[in-house]
Amino acid sequence: MQSNELAEVIPVIHETLRIEKREFESGRVVVHKTVTERDEVAEVLLRQQDLVVERVPVGRIVLEAPPTRQDGDTLIVPILEEILVVEKRLILKEELHIRKQSSERAEQHTVRLRTEHVEIEQTGREASIKATTHDKETLV
Q1: Do residues 75 and 68 make contact, with C-beta atoms less than 8 angstroms apart?
Q2: SS3 for 18?
């Protein structure tokens, strides 16, 4: 380039983007919670089993001890006794006949249940929002 010539300047522009975030409060929420209680009666059916022991005299001489056996719902347990005679004999003195006997009875129990009610009220905006939660039963 010679000194008598004018140089042309072309500006180069570079733009950047700057993003800022600001937090601001747009409203508030107020939660009201109430608890109600009620007594409720719970009826329960209970089962109880008892054993009935019946002594059945046998009085029979046996050569060896009979085994314990089952006859339907009855468990038969042999009871042996040795008696002294001129000779020794094994006599089945009696048997225990054991049966299960069931009975049922109804009982009532008082149970306290609580229910919570919630009301949400939003403040600070033009429209107020109110909501109620579904009831939730809690066994105490």
Answers
A1: yes
A2: coil
Q: What residues contact 120, with CB distance under 8 A and at least 6 apart?
A: 29, 30, 31, 32, 129, 130, 131
Give the whole-angstrom CA distance, residue 61 versus residue 57. Answer: 12
Give the model confidence (pLDDT) of 41-51 as tens digits. 999 999 999 99
Distances in whole angstroms, Cα of residue 6 to Cα of each of 10, 11, 79: 13, 16, 136
CA–CA gap between residue 107 and residue 48 (Å, rounded) = 13
Strand partners, 80: 92
Note whether 118 and 92 are within 8 A (CB). no
What pLDDT digit, counting tens, does each position of 74-120 carry?
Answer: 999 999 998 887 777 889 999 999 899 999 999 998 989 888 888 88
